[in-house]
Design a protein that fits this description.
Blueprint: H1 5-61, H2 65-144, H3 149-217, H4 222-226, H5 228-233
Helix pairs in contact: 1-2, 2-3
Length: about 240
C-alpha cells in the first residue's frame, strides 16, 4: 500500500496525540506525587518545631545540668532542620512543581490546537460536500437546456463561491498543520530541556539539603553524641 503525503501527516499528528495523552497522564501523576512530598516536608517541619519546643522546655527544667546543654543544642538543631524542611518544600515547588504544572498547561494548549485543527478539517470537507451538491445541481440544469439559463447563471455563481470556500478552508487546514508541526517540534525540543534542567536542580537541592542536615551536627562536641541515648529516654521517663 502506498501512502500519500497527506496520509503521512495524518499519521504523524495521530502519533503525537497518543504521545501527548500518555505524557499528560504521567505528568499529572508526577505532580500529585510532588504535592505529596511537599505536604510531607511541611509536616516534618511542623513536627521538628514541636520537638524543638519540647526539648527546650525539658532543658529549662534542669533535671540534670549535664543534659541541659545537649538538650538545648538538640532543640536548636531541630529549629534549623525545621527551617531546612520549609525551605526545601518551597524549592520543590519552584524547581519541579511549577515546571510540571507549566508543562501540563502547555500540553492542554496543544490539545486544544489539535481540536481546532480537527474542526478545520471538518469545515474543509463540509465545504467540499456543499460544492459537490451545487455541481450536481448544476449538471442537472445543464442537461435540461436553455430553459434554465437564469438558474444556471445563479448556480454558476454559487459554484464559484463554493469553490472559493473550499480553497480557503483547505489552505486554513494546511497552514494550521504546518504551524502546529513546527510548534510541536519546538515544544518537544525546548520543553524537554527545561524539564531536564528542573529535575537536575531539584536533585541538587535535595542532595544539598541532606548535607545541611549533616552539617548541623558537626559544630557540637563529641559528648553530645555520647548523651544522645539519654536524650531519647529522658522525655519518656
Amino acid at each position: 500500500m502506498s501512502w500519500s503525503l497527506t496520509d503521512f501527516f495524518f499519521q504523524w499528528f495521530h502519533d503525537r496525540k497518543i504521545y501527548l495523552d500518555a505524557l499528560e497522564a504521567q505528568l499529572r501523576a508526577l505532580l500529585k506525587a510532588t504535592d505529596t512530598v511537599v505536604a510531607q516536608r511541611k509536616g516534618l517541619a511542623e513536627a521538628c518545631g514541636d520537638f524543638s519546643a519540647s526539648l527546650h522546655s525539658l532543658a529549662a527544667v534542669e533535671l540534670s545540668p549535664s543534659l541541659s546543654g545537649p538538650l538545648d543544642g538538640l532543640s536548636d538543631i531541630q529549629i534549623r532542620i525545621r527551617e531546612l524542611y520549609e525551605r526545601q518544600a518551597q524549592q520543590d515547588v519552584l524547581t519541579l512543581g511549577i515546571v510540571i504544572d507549566e508543562y501540563i498547561r502547555l500540553i492542554g494548549s496543544v490539545k486544544t490546537a489539535f481540536q481546532q485543527r480537527q474542526k478545520a478539517y471538518h469545515a474543509w470537507h463540509t465545504a467540499e460536500s456543499e460544492l459537490q451538491k451545487r455541481k450536481t445541481t448544476q449538471d442537472k440544469l445543464l442537461r435540461q437546456g436553455k430553459s434554465q439559463q437564469d438558474k444556471l447563471s445563479q448556480l454558476s455563481a454559487d459554484v464559484a463561491d463554493a469553490e472559493r470556500r473550499v480553497h480557503q478552508a483547505r489552505l486554513l487546514f494546511e497552514d494550521m498543520g504546518r504551524l502546529m508541526r513546527a510548534e510541536l517540534e519546538r515544544f518537544e525540543r525546548e520543553k524537554v530541556e527545561d524539564f531536564k534542567s528542573g529535575v537536575e536542580t531539584y536533585l541538587e537541592s535535595a542532595v544539598e539539603a541532606q548535607k545541611e542536615v549533616f552539617d548541623c551536627l558537626l559544630p557540637y562536641p563529641s559528648y553530645f553524641i555520647t548523651f544522645l541515648p539519654l536524650l531519647i529516654v529522658a522525655p519518656l521517663a
